Amino acid sequence: MKRIYVCVLVAALVFNVSIGQDVRPSNAYVELEIAGSVSEKMSMLSFFFPQQMTVRGYLELMEKARLDDTIGGLLIKINSTDMGWAKMEQLRRKVLEFRQSGKKTYALLKGSDIISYILASSCDEIAMTPQSMLLIPGLNAEVLYFKDLFAKLGIQFEEVHMGKYKTGAEQFTENTMSEETREEINFLLDDIYERLVTTISTARKLEKEKVIELLDIGLMTPAQAKKFGLIDHVVYKDDLLDRMGDQIRRNIELVSGYGEKKITFEEIDFFEMLNTFFKVPIQPAVEAKDKIALVYAEGMILPGSQIDYPFAESVIAEDDFVEMLSTCRAEGGIRAVVIRINSPGGSAASSDVIWHEIHLLARRKPVIVSMSDVAASGGYYIAMAGDTIFAEEGTITGSIGVLGMKVALNEFFEKIGVEKITVRRGKNAGILLGTDPLTPEQREILQQNMAAVYGEFTRKVREDRTLSEEELLAAAEGRIWTGAQAKRMKLVDEIGGLDAAIEAAQLAAGFGKHQDVEIEIYPPQLNFMELFQKLLSGNLPLSYLPCNVLEMKTFTSYIPLLQTIRKNCIMALMPCEIEIR
User: Fold this and answer.
1) Are residues 231 and 308 in the same domain?
2) How many helices (H) and strands (E) are present in the chain, helices listed first?
């Protein structure tokens, strides 16, 4: 009897092998490159200028590859990325989710900083090319101070702030860091550094003490990095592909441009192309399809329209943004709205108007807020109007406070030989727009007005976030927080990225969790005809051009701030521009 069972079993195995499918892992690997700036949204002119992928583009690509049975894994080429901690954490989580499907992931580091390395550590294996360098020297926060520069020009900045830690103007009024700024930056670094050490320790199976030692070394060759256990291979790309193939006993086939639609000449529809470029109404209107709106709020919050700030790379212009929110509120097909915020704040008055418009929107349909790298001060002001707030652990947020600034140019005019003649009516006619320094009386008036604005800001925080007076005092005073800290302070609801926020919006709108839902993007991209019309009318800001066309990012980022100081001196702005690398 036992022989019969053995024979049947052997026969079944032979039969299965002979007619069954090949169950080995697929040898098709998606080649994904993450390098340079990772933006939130496509350029207005993306149809004309090639753009790098957006955060959402990377997320959708990896999700598509995860569900695709013909794809065996990912090869991620990472080369000195320029993104904040929140964006990195979002992408890193998606790579880990991809791995949970059982598919392999490899990272090939060419040029590495700390954020690039942390992203790479989410992969199964990390490789570096032989002549590259691993740069992981802990964390470094830099703040620029301009007081002495402006003093040489005869320009004097004056400021008043509400909130102990609301030191945003000190970049212009001081030549060194205040104790309050130093305290909160150290507080941020401690939180980020602790998670950094834990992440590397977990990903590379190293003791935390060893990770700290390696971070203190900072710069090392690939051979050293491999010896210390920070990477797995020191190879060129072709050698890495051979190693990947050896693991599945098949040659690796890289898939470039995965997810891009390939169009043959026979598939080209001339009328559809016309509609794309010129929006020709070639079809009758159809009933609006239910969808979710994704509204991007990126840059400083400023009064007026985008055209008022032609040199700004990206701004949240009050008039334009309110109009977009009003459209989302009125359009019946939009069932829920996700607002993706990446902003250090700006004008307190404009922030309040946008806050009000989001509240009106939230009365009609669910509003979910997703914080990117920064959503602080005015950025937090507009965020708190949402029904639910998502942030990454590395998001910079909070900064609940206001500050006021004025520029005194009298000495500057004297230096350049300009004679200023002033004719006024009213004792304080030049309190904001004049070039004279503030008098003690004017400073007192300004402080009273700022106290009123700060009082309204904190009242709305307390009501929107349901905080006690003690909780509000602990969270406010202009102090900045990481997303992880903000959740403990009850300033945000959930730790998660853009994909989690969109999923929450789907459920709030009554869609199924895995239902395929149309996402409508705001602001919409320009088509060719719209671009042409703006060019003819002179209403095309230079910020509509890709970043690599305007190589003035560092300088021009301060222009909207200076414009705002002249128009409206009370601002809800981060304590200072902080870059943690």
Assistant:
1) no
2) 22, 24
Q: Is residue 399 left, alpha or beta, with left meaning phi > 0 and alpha meaning psi from -120 to 50?
A: left
* Pair 404, 494 in one domain: yes
Asked if residues 325 and 357 have their Cβ atoms less than 8 Å apart, the reply is yes
Domain annotation covers residue 92:
yes
Give the Cα separation of 374 and 574 in Å (integer).
9
pLDDT tens-digit profile of 289-344? 799 999 999 999 999 887 777 656 688 999 999 999 999 999 999 999 999 999 99
Shared domain check, 316 and 223: no
Q: What is the mean pLDDT of the chain?
A: 83
Of 66, 60, 61, 63, the closest CA to residue 101 belongs to 66
Confidence of residue 528 (pLDDT cuts 50, 70, 90): low
- The model carries a pTM of 0.85
First to last CA, the chain: 71
Of 581 and 240, more confident: 240
Domain total in the chain: 2
Report the chain's C-alpha Rg in angstroms. Answer: 27
Is residue 51 within 8 Å of 38, Cβ to Cβ? Answer: no
Is 186 a member of any domain? Answer: no
Q: Judge if 521 and 573 occupy the same domain.
A: yes
How far, in Å, are 170, 434, 560 from residue 430 at the CA level? 23, 4, 22
Is 383 found in the same domain as 317? yes
**Residue 157: inside a domain, yes or no?**
no
Say which amino acid occupies 484. Answer: A
pLDDT digits (tens, 9 = 90+) for 201-224: 999 999 999 999 999 998 999 999
Using CA atoms, how far apart are residues 52 and 31, in angstroms rounded to an integer?
15
Q: Do 401 and 379 touch, CB atoms closer than 8 A?
A: no
One domain, residues 386 and 511 = yes
Q: Which single residue is written with the structure tokens 């392999």?
A: 104
- One domain for residues 251 and 295: no
166 token code pair: 């609301």
Per-residue pLDDT at 338: 98
| d(C-alpha 365, C-alpha 261), whole Å | 34
What is the C-alpha separation between 217 and 196, in angstroms, rounded?
A: 15
Task: List the domain range (segments joined by +) for residue 376.
Answer: 291-580
464: in domain: yes
Contacts of 103 (CB under 8 A, 6+ apart): 25, 65, 66, 71, 72, 73, 74
* 284, pLDDT greater than 90: no
Closest of 192, 198, 193, 194 to residue 483, by C-alpha: 192
CB 337 within 8 A of CB 293: yes
Closest-CA residue to 128 (of 254, 240, 18, 287): 240
What is the average per-residue pLDDT within 386-394? 97
The encoded tokens of residue 298 equal 């990126």
AA identity, residue 455? G
Task: Give the residue-averaged pLDDT of 112-133.
Answer: 93
Alpha helix (H) ranges present in 336-426?
348-364, 378-383, 410-415
